[in-house]
Amino acid sequence: MGGHLFLKNVKVVITAIKHNNLSYGSPQVRMNFAALVLWARRYIYRDSMKYIITLLIIFSSSAHAAKEHPIDLTMSKCLKNKANHTTAGMSQCVNNAAIEWDKELNRVYKLLKSELNEDGKKALKLSQRQWIKQRDLEFNFLTKMYYRQRFSGSMYSNMKNMDKLNIVKNRVLMLTKYLNRH
């Protein structure tokens, strides 16, 4: 009975993703995803849970691939590869994407900076320094939350790394939006 209800909830989440144009990083998907993970820990064997989590990541990250950034598409492709249906494989996919988002952040920052006058450049530099401080505080919080609270297990490391990736990705998207307005 528990497994049947779980699969029904997975189907509801995937349908919501597809029909509401949501991505993995959206708060609605992340909240439902976290609830399903906690539910799965209680009712599903650990190996089955890893498989289900992999499927959820794949479905949620590829629901609207046409609108996704190339880095996200590469990560989705990596996660779909059967060789990466392990915790270590998923971790490598997420870590590679995080490295690419960091490179993209630097690229977009430099492009935006080149478009601004001197006052704008100073303001951008100050803003970026403050964002880096906030990012570091958030990363520290995530580490403490995932490792020092109730969360344990290798899958939580992947969830933490995905949260970190999304922080950087969101900054890239914001700077890109500013660049496109200029």
Q: How would you portray this structure in words?
A:
The protein is mainly α. It has helices at residues 2-19, 27-43, 46-62, 70-80, 87-115, 118-148, 154-181. Helix 5 packs parallel to helix 7 (154-181) and helix 6 (118-148) packs antiparallel against helix 7 (154-181).
Number of helices: 7
Distance, first to last CA: 56 Å
Radius of gyration: 18 Å
The largest sheet, given as strand count, sense and whether it forms a barrel, is: none
From the spread of the alpha carbons, the general shape counts as globular
The helix fraction, in percent, is: over 70%
What is the overall pLDDT average? Answer: 78
Q: How many separate domains make up the residues? A: 2
**Order of SSEs:** HHHHHHH
Structural class per helix/strand content? mainly alpha
The total strand number stands at: 0
Q: Give the low-confidence spans.
A: 62-66
Beta-strand residue fraction: under 5%
Q: State the oligomer.
A: single chain
Concise account of the structure shown:
This protein has 182 residues and is an all-alpha fold.
Strand and helix layout:
Blueprint: H1 2-19, H2 27-43, H3 46-62, H4 70-80, H5 87-115, H6 118-148, H7 154-181
Helix pairs in contact: 1-2, 2-3, 3-4, 4-5, 5-7, 6-7
